[in-house]
Amino acid sequence: MDFLTNFIDAVASQPVFYLLSLAMIISALMVVTLRNIFHCAIFLIMTLFCVAGIYILLNAEFLAAVQVLIYVGAVSVLMIFAIMLTSQLTSVKIQQTNEQVTAAGLIAIAFLGASMYAMLRTKWNLGEVTLPENNIMSLGKLLMTDFVLPFEVVSVLLLAALIGAVVLARRESS
Fold first, then answer.
1. What range does the domain containing 161 cover?
2. What is the pLDDT of residues 123-155, one digit of tens each?
3. How many separate domains does the chain show?
4. Do 19 and 84 fall within a single domain?
5. How far is CA 48 from CA 8, 36, 71, 81, 150, in A?
6. Domain boundary, last residue among 54, 70, 88
7. 106 Cα distance to chain centroid
8. Which residue from 106, 99, 79, 96 is spatially nearest to 32, judged by alpha carbons?
9. Is residue 73 a part of any domain in this protein?
10. Alpha-carbon gap, residue 140 to 30, rounded angstroms
């Protein structure tokens, strides 16, 4: 039975990876090419969901959950609220023109070619990677033992940013 589940995981994960990658690339291209900023935000949410799906395929469920909670849940919703509120305040349509499309396209093609050349010329070490049984528990142990000082510094910085945001919001409202 274990062989069957491993076989299904191995066979099904590759098409799902290709499907998620294709959806992620298409939605990322839509983010940078669409002119409606609200539609761009919706496609950004789709891109971030695809990244979470790839995390799940890599057996990093905790990272997938963090991706969905923080980026999709908080940042994207904040962006959509900001877009909706600012478009009602200004009600001015900005025409978007770009005369450097050809130069940007040539640079992108050159970068893609250089990246493909580097990937094809590199000898990849494709050894078997063994993951610990419980990734979240090992992450928690690392954060509370080896990386306790950086963890606490980041906590204090986030608290200072939160207090600063509250002070600025109160100052503007009064």
1. 133-173
2. 888 777 676 667 778 878 888 899 899 989 988
3. 2
4. yes
5. 26, 19, 7, 18, 27
6. 88
7. 26
8. 96
9. yes
10. 37
Q: How confident is the model at residue 121 (pLDDT cuts 50, 70, 90)?
A: very high
Within a domain: residue 61? yes
Q: Environment class of residue 145 by beta-carbon count within 10 Å: exposed (0-12), middle (13-18) or buried (19+)?
A: exposed
pTM over 0.90: no
CA distances from 18 to 2, 12, 43, 49 (A): 25, 10, 18, 15
Question: Domain boundary residue among 88, 115, 149?
Answer: 88
